[in-house]
């Protein structure tokens, strides 16, 4: 295994930073989609529940069945948001490791007296 160079570490840090920027935009979009899906489900459920006939339990079950697609869309949107959040945390940790590695490479380079006469 080759030791990382300052250039390779910096290149990796730049790539991680770019990926974090893209993921941050994705998080905004996914958060909005999850919020919209939750709202759609809640409103649909309420409409069905309030217009259904029968006992409270019967109306609840009618609403559950009538809104199963909306509930699935809500849960899928929440899952996509959680996945993106985990990826964001992972990339942030990788960025921190890269910074530490870069500091170690710089220290090694300095202590070796590279470029000094």
Portion in beta strands = under 5%
Biggest sheet details: none
Helix-strand makeup class: mainly alpha
> Compute the gyration radius: what is it?
25 Å
Give the averaged pLDDT, no decimals. Answer: 91
Number of domains: 1
Order of helices and strands: HHH
Oligomer: single chain
**Which blocks of ≥5 consecutive residues have pLDDT under 50?**
none
Query: What overall geometry do the principal axes of the alpha carbons give?
Result: rod-shaped
Q: Helical region count?
A: 3
Strand elements, count: 0
Key structural traits:
117 residues, 86% helix, rod-shaped
Describe, in plain words, how this protein is organized in 3D:
Residues 13-40, 67-94 form a coiled coil. With 117 residues, the protein is mainly α. It has one domain. Helix content is 86%, strand content 0%. The chain has helices at 6-51, 56-66, 68-111. The protein is rod-shaped and about 85 Å long. It starts with 5 loop residues before the first helix and ends in a 6-residue tail after the last helix. The mean pLDDT is 91.
How do the helices and strands line up, and which of them pair or pack?
Layout: H1 6-51, H2 56-66, H3 68-111
Concise overview:
Keywords: Coiled coil. This protein is mainly alpha-helical and 117 residues long.
């Amino acid at each position: 295994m080759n030791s990382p160079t300052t250039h390779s570490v910096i290149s990796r840090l730049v790539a991680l930073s770019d990926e974090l920027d893209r993921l941050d935009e994705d998080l905004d979009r996914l958060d909005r989609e999850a919020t919209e899906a939750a709202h759609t489900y809640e409103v649909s459920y309420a409409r069905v529940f309030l217009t259904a006939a029968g006992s409270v339990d019967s109306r609840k079950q009618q609403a559950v069945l009538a809104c199963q697609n909306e509930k699935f869309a809500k849960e899928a949107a929440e899952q996509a948001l959680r996945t993106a959040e985990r990826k964001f945390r992972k990339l942030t940790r990788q960025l921190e490791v890269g910074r530490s590695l870069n500091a170690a490479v710089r220290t090694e380079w300095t202590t070796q007296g590279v470029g000094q006469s």
